[in-house]
Design goal:
Layout: H1 4-11, H2 31-36, E1 39-41, E2 55-57, H3 64-74, E3 79-82, H4 101-107, H5 110-126, E4 131-132, H6 156-173, E5 176-182, E6 198-199, H7 203-210, H8 212-219, E7 224-227, E8 231-232, H9 245-255, E9 261-263, H10 270-276, H11 278-288, E10 293-295, H12 299-312, H13 315-331, H14 344-350, E11 352-355, E12 369-373, H15 377-384, E13 387-390, H16 398-406, E14 411-416, H17 425-436, E15 440-445, E16 461-463, H18 479-489
Parallel strand pairs: 1-2, 1-10, 2-3, 3-4, 4-5, 5-7, 6-8, 7-9, 12-13, 12-14, 14-15, 15-16
Antiparallel strand pairs: 11-16
Helix pairs in contact: 1-6, 4-14, 5-6, 6-8, 11-12, 14-18, 15-18, 16-17
């Protein structure tokens, strides 16, 4: 896939709309249509035309055909998008799953990031989707509150290269990349879906750690950037970035020179809604320098935001942001590059062998195997052709652990999963109990790789970066990564290197081979 980056560097310019295609101007829009350009409707999209919204989020769809029908109904002047951080599969059934961002970071190869973006964009365009709220430029700088596997890693340089590759790929394909979350989301101390986080880093640290990936994105021509609901104490100790003119106008626009479209993260998230309410927050965000409010609630929320913007903004301010959105839509109405990208080599290049002192890996494919764990066990076992056992929660009980031990086979792979840097006690007990059963045992962290710190003496450990759960129920298992993991367990060469520091024993850059 080394051919991809040189090609993108040569053609990374959105294909302009043909002269016969009507690119609408401000003068051609009614006052309501101008106002609608400032809102991206998600959640309840059934009456988006009544706002009327200029951007609409794609609801989860069973297949490309259904998604294409949805986008067709929105009309040619509506930009349809959504979160597709690891592929169109994130919202459209039957499409391709690529490794999650930290998995791409583990490959250490921007060409893999570019390939994943190009493959994703190709499938999105088949569905009529022209906006991806990705890639993430967040730096995983707080191991005590890891950002799941949604960050490429902890190195701003690596993240800058990966973000640049993905921005170029999406632009070349004619799909809008919305780089997020500006800035500092990877260093938070709380989840903004529920409460307002802060980043305590000083300005020098922000310049060294959190800003570089966004500067790189802007240099690569990023057309859209999403704000973070995070308070940067060194810049504005009173307001989150989404509502702060010091952050949006002062840093993003004035210092960094970004003149593209600025979109907020969901205005319904607890960090914003609980303190300012969606109406006041939406007006504050636009006055601070944002152009589009992302609303992911009920239809009544969308109407409330529309009415608040109408009452709280001057027509000149509305037209300024509407013009930016219209320009973006016109730039991204062409076809661009399209190609199918095989995700399997990328996924195998992400799987990281952290430890093999016990020589338990690779497993023997001719010997009976059990996969045990707390999440995504069945799809992993199916990929391995193994038996499986799964606990009822992320913290197995003593009785459940005893049942897992009773099911032990000649080889056991324990699939662990944690939401943070510490593995639940029940999972630690599970690993030790299965090891004590006297069988060949290895473990794999399905989420963040910090799990290995809870079983450092096991002697055989892998990291897959396959699952993330920042809020709500866990998403479906990443089938591509599960198949790659199964191949590696049975002897295929792992290719990944840790993109974060786990401990002194497991430093960033560690990646063993068989």
């Amino acid at each position: 896939m080394k051919w991809i980056l040189p090609l993108l560097l040569a053609v990374a310019v959105p294909v302009p709309a043909a002269a016969s295609t009507a690119c609408r101007t401000i003068e051609q829009l009614t006052p309501d249509e101008r106002l609608g350009q400032l809102i991206m409707v998600g959640g309840d999209t059934s009456r988006a035309h009544e706002v009327p919204a200029g951007l609409v989020s794609l609801p989860d769809m069973p297949d490309v055909r259904s998604a294409a029908e949805f986008t067709r109904r929105q009309g040619k002047d509506v930009l349809v998008g959504g979160d597709f951080e690891h592929g169109a599969i994130q919202g459209i059934g039957g499409t391709t799953a690529y490794p999650r961002p930290m998995g791409l970071g583990a490959t250490r190869d921007p060409a893999n990031a570019a390939a994943a973006a190009l493959g994703t964009a190709t499938e999105l365009k088949q569905a009529g989707v022209r906006l991806n709220l990705a890639p993430l430029a967040d730096v995983n700088s707080n191991p005590q509150f890891p950002f799941g596997v949604r960050s490429y890693g902890e190195d701003p340089g690596l993240i800058s290269r990966m973000v640049t590759a993905q921005v170029l790929a999406y632009r070349s394909a004619g799909v809008v990349p919305a780089v997020k979350h500006f800035p500092g989301h990877g260093g938070v101390n709380a989840d903004p879906h529920w409460e307002l986080p802060t980043v305590d880093a000083d300005r020098a640290t922000m310049d060294r750690v959190h800003f570089p990936p966004f500067r790189a994105a802007i240099a690569a021509g990023a057309p859209m950037i999403m704000t973070a609901h995070v308070v940067l104490r060194a810049v504005d100790p009173d307001l989150p970035s989404t509502l702060s003119s010091r952050v949006i106008t002062g840093i993003l626009r004035s210092e960094m020179g970004f003149d593209g479209v600025v979109i907020t993260d969901s205005i319904q998230m607890g960090a914003i809604k609980e303190r300012w309410g969606i109406a006041d927050a939406s007006v504050r965000a636009l006055k601070a320098g944002a152009d589009v409010v992302l609303s992911t609630g009920l239809h009544s929320d969308h109407v409330t935001i529309r009415d608040a913007l109408r009452a709280g903004l001057t027509q000149e301010r509305i037209d300024q942001s509407a013009a930016r959105v219209l320009k973006l839509k016109c730039q991204y109405r062409g076809q661009g590059l399209s190609t199918r990208v095989d995700p399997d080599p990328i996924a195998q290049a992400s799987i990281t062998l952290l430890d093999n002192r016990s020589k338990a890996l690779p497993f023997n494919s001719q010997v009976r195997t059990l996969v045990a764990g707390v999440m995504d066990v069945e799809p992993l076992a199916q990929a391995m052709g193994a038996n499986w056992w799964q606990a009822s929660s992320e913290n197995p009980t003593d009785a459940e652990i005893a049942e897992a031990v009773r099911r032990v086979e000649d080889q056991v792979l324990v699939a662990t999963y944690s939401r943070g840097p510490t593995l639940p006690e029940g999972q630690v007990k599970l690993v030790h109990a299965l090891k004590a059963a006297g069988k060949r045992v290895a473990a794999v962290s399905l989420g963040v790789p910090y799990d290995v710190n809870s079983y450092p003496d096991l002697g055989a450990a892998l990291a897959a970066y396959a699952q993330t759960q920042v809020w709500g129920p866990p998403p479906p298992a990443n089938g591509t990564v599960m198949k790659a993991l199964a191949r590696v367990v049975f002897g295929a060469q792992p290719g990944g290197k840790l993109p974060v520091t786990v401990s002194a024993r497991y430093p960033s850059g560690l990646g063993l081979r068989y």
